[in-house]
Design brief:
Blueprint (H helix, E strand, L loop, with lengths): L2 H6 L15 E5 L4 H6 L1 H12 L4 E8 L2 E8 L15 E2 L4 H14 L9 H4 L5 E2 L2 E2 L5 H5 L12 H7 L3 H4 L6 H9 L15 H15 L3 H13 L21 E2 L11 E2 L15 E2 L1 H13 L5 H7 L3 E2 L9 E2 L4 E4 L5 E9 L2 E7 L6 E6 L7 H10 L12 H6 L4
Antiparallel strand pairs: 1-3, 2-3, 2-15, 4-9, 5-6, 7-8, 10-11, 11-12, 12-13, 13-14, 14-15
């Protein structure tokens, strides 16, 4: 991770860990020569990430030909264990679309309107230094056009989750504390007059879910999404520092930039600092299950599905295809394929979940490191067959910008 990466969001950008192991293991539901050829570029790109320093890469793709699982590198630098398809990992900001989907379901039930003001549901919470919850809508929270300051960009908070991580890794932060940190600063811009990725938006969104339902946002996600989509390996840990088994280890250099910087095992951490903006733990299989159900419209009525996939521009370039819906990014790959996706990063884990607009082709990946590598290149490889020239090549500029929202 870079300082800019974690300041701008939970989703990470660059990652890796220096390991010599580059062996790739694959299994597939239809493990034929044709199937191997179909994913050859993805397998090669996964190997390239490990050669560039990522400890281990885990991936799964699902399409009309079946389910394909692959791994490269290791899950544990100490034992050399390979990464397994059932391994769990922290998904960071991929959490955001779970929250937006619950809010859209509540709208469909007539319990709120996503154009309600934040002040209506959370009176007095978004206030101070130019913030005004009465001028911000739920929709603007979900598509990051609210202008609300991003609490992970607060210098003191950033120090605690970066160079101060080892000292603060088990501390609990409440949603109210996270929002209060943001309120110490001026907004990024007037509501509706710009775009800035802000984790505070989704902490507020989680608070609104709880205000409307009277239940924890985690229980609503479990009931409304995990059970309906059959996601049996996905959990919302709250303040628990553990990752349920099976899982590999997560590694970080804690923002040290020297090539020989110490690699820390950061598997255990209290994820309450991310809460509804990035606490979920999942698997590649469950993420594909979720994206397939979400993009096919299995979780939302037609009207709310349109709202979910109505994107605002994230680039000031007129020719850009980059956009952000309600908890999902969209972009066009170099081969012309349009996908919906989201990156997710938290200490020791960098993830990517994606799917074509019809949900028929999905792919999810995870790196168990947070300072090198390029998950965007894996999307190019999987959907376009782009072959790696290096571990960080192969991604369109618009898509790279979208997945650098962290």
């Amino acid at each position: 991770m870079t300082a800019r990466t974690i300041r701008r969001a939970l989703t990470t950008a660059a990652l890796a860990a220096a390991l010599a192991t580059t062996a790739l293991t694959t299994t597939a539901s239809a493990d034929t020569g044709r199937d191997h050829d179909r994913h050859a570029a993805t397998r090669a790109m996964m190997e390239a990430q490990v050669k560039a320093g990522v400890p281990g890469v885990l991936g799964q793709a699902q399409d009309a030909h079946g389910t394909w699982n692959a791994s490269a590198g290791v899950a544990d630098r100490g034992t050399g264990r390979e990464r397994l398809p059932q391994d769990r990992f922290r998904i960071g900001s991929i959490t955001k679309s779970f929250v937006s989907t619950v809010l859209l379901q509540l709208e469909a039930e007539g319990r709120l309107d996503i154009d309600d003001s934040v002040e209506h549901w959370l009176p007095g919470v978004v206030h101070g230094n130019g913030h005004d919850g009465g001028r911000i809508t739920i929709r603007q929270l979900l598509n990051h056009t609210s202008g609300v300051f991003n609490y992970t960009e607060d210098p003191a908070f950033f120090q605690q989750i970066s160079t101060g991580f080892l000292e603060h890794r088990y501390e609990t932060r409440t949603p109210a504390q996270l929002v209060a940190t943001a309120m110490k600063h001026e907004p990024h811009f007037t509501p509706g007059k710009g775009w800035h990725y802000s984790n505070t938006n989704y902490v507020l969104a989680g608070m609104i879910v709880e205000k409307v339902t009277g239940h924890s946002y985690a229980s609503e996600v479990e009931k409304r999404i995990l059970k309906r989509a059959g996601m049996r390996s996905t959990t919302l840990p709250g303040t628990s520092a553990r990752v349920p088994g099976p899982h590999g280890r997560g590694y970080s250099k804690l923002f040290a930039t020297a090539p020989d910087a110490k690699i820390h095992d950061v598997t255990e951490l209290n994820p309450s600092w991310g809460w509804a903006a990035g606490e979920i733990i999942s698997t590649t299989g469950d993420l594909n299950r979720y994206y397939r159900a979400l993009l096919r419209g299995d979780l939302l009525p037609e009207r709310q599905q349109r709202e979910l996939l109505t994107a605002v521009p994230t680039s000031d370039k007129p020719s850009s295809d980059a956009g952000y819906g309600l908890g999902l990014s969209t972009g066009k790959l170099s081969c012309g394929v349009t996908i919906w996706f989201h990156g997710g990063g938290i200490h020791g884990s960098t993830s990517m979940a994606s799917g074509t607009p019809d949900g028929r082709h999905t792919a999810a990946f995870n790196f168990n490191g947070d300072w090198a590598g390029d998950p965007n290149a894996l999307l190019e490889a999987e959907y376009c067959g782009a072959k790696p020239m290096a571990a960080t090549t192969g991604t369109s500029k618009d898509l790279k910008k979208l997945t650098s929202l962290r």
